[in-house]
Amino acid sequence: MEKLSDGENINRTWENNKENIKISAKQSLGLCELKQHKQWSNEERLRYLDQRKHAKTQWVLDPKQSNVDNLHNVRCEASRYFRNKKKEYLKDKSDELETNSNIKNIRDLYGGIIDSKEGYQPRTNIVWDEMGDLVQTPTVL
Fold this sequence. Notes:
Oligomer: single chain
Order of helices and strands: HHHHEEEE
């Protein structure tokens, strides 16, 4: 057995205790994973946004009728895609709420209801200087 100083022994003991606490908590309480919100940023979404941006720049550079028609068609296509994605997302949310109701998962049921009622709430962080004056209020998205 190697000889360790008192500091190293204490650190090793604390690390062992910390690991044992984590293992026993995981076994008794289970692992609680954070909820992940659905990602809106997929390849198809980015493709529609790029098409719309490209059509608009073409129209701005050369405002002839064919570019106006192209811009209108691309905007309609993109709007249809986003509208369908939103319907799909809302249907998935309502199915999730129905599932939570059926399996008597009340906490997630009411959490989902509150989220759907409130909608998206941007968080604002207020920054103060040393004198207590307001410097800026950046919005975190």
